[in-house]
Amino acid sequence: MLGGFGRSGSTLLERCLAQCEDFMGLGELLHLWERGLRDNELCGCGLPFHECPVWQQIGVQAYGRWGRIDTDQAIADRRTVIRNRFLPELILQRGFGQRRQARQRLLSNLSKLYRAADTVADGKVLVDSSKHPAYAYFLRSLPIDLRCVLVVRDPRGVAYSWSKVVTRPETGSRAEDMPRYSVPASIFNWTTYSLLFHALTLLRIPVLTVHYEEFMTDPTRTLEEVIRFAGLEPTQARVPEFADGHITLDAHHTVAGNPMRFKVGQIKLKFDNAWTTQMKDLDRRLATTLSAPLRLFYRFNQR
C-alpha cells in the first residue's frame, strides 16, 4: 500500500510501478465503494467503472457480480470503521458497539476483493494507493502480505498544492473539484499521516519511506528500491525505461486518485517546486514553522 498525505507524488509512483511487469496498480481502493460502485466514475482506463472489463472481472470473481453488494451499506461500513480517531480499535483489531458488525462486513468484502484482484492480476504485486493510515491499520486484519511505502514530500510544497483548485475529470458533467485545505490543516495531516505510518513498524508491518524529491531526481533508483522492498529483484526487464526524464505510460485500471492517473503515452517527469516562488510569504513561513520538527527528521531544507 502507498501511504502519506496527498499531493506527494503517490499517483505518479503507482503509475510507474504499474509499468513494471510484476505490479498491478488498483488506485485508491478505500474509495471504490462510492466512486466506483455508486457513482460509476471513470476508471483510469477511461471507461466508467461498470463498463471496465477488468473491474467487472474482479467483481464477478469476488462476489458473483457487483450487484450483490449492498453499496450503501458498504459505504457506511467504510465510513464508520476507517477513521483515525478509532486507531485504538484498529490496533487491537477489534470493533466496539455498532462498529463491530460494520467491521466484520468490511473485512468480508475486502477479503473477497483483494483475493479476486490477486487472481485477476495473476500473482502480480497489487498496488493500493489509498494513502490513509487508518486504512493501513485496518488491512492488518486481512490475510494479505501488507507492506507500506510512505511517500513524503516537502510539506510546504504539499500545502501549496492543496491550496490550488483541481478539477476531478472522472466526475464528468458534475465537474467536481478536489477538496482544498488551509496551510495548518495540510501540515497537520502531513504530520499525522507520516507519524502513523512510521508507527506501523511497531506492529511489525514493513514500511519504506520514499521522498518525492528523490523519486523525481532519480526515478529508476526509487523504483528499484520499491521493487526490492516488495521482495523482488529489480532486473532490467522489471524496471520501466526512463529516457531523458520521460516514461511511456499505458492505461491502468485505477478506481480513484489524482487526475494524472488518466495520462497515457509519453510523459515527462517534472519536478514540481512551484511553491518555492509562488507560495505566499505568510503561508510559507507558517508552513515552515509548523512542520519544522518532522522536516528536520526528513532532512528537508529548513529555510
From TrEMBL:
SUPFAM superfamilies: P-loop containing nucleoside triphosphate hydrolases. Pfam families: Sulfotransfer_3 (PF13469). Signal peptide: none annotated. One of its GO terms (molecular function) is N-acetylglucosamine 6-O-sulfotransferase activity. The keyword Transferase applies. PANTHER family: CARBOHYDRATE SULFOTRANSFERASE (PTHR10704), LD35051P-RELATED (PTHR10704:SF44). This is Sulfotransferase domain protein. It comes from Glutamicibacter creatinolyticus.
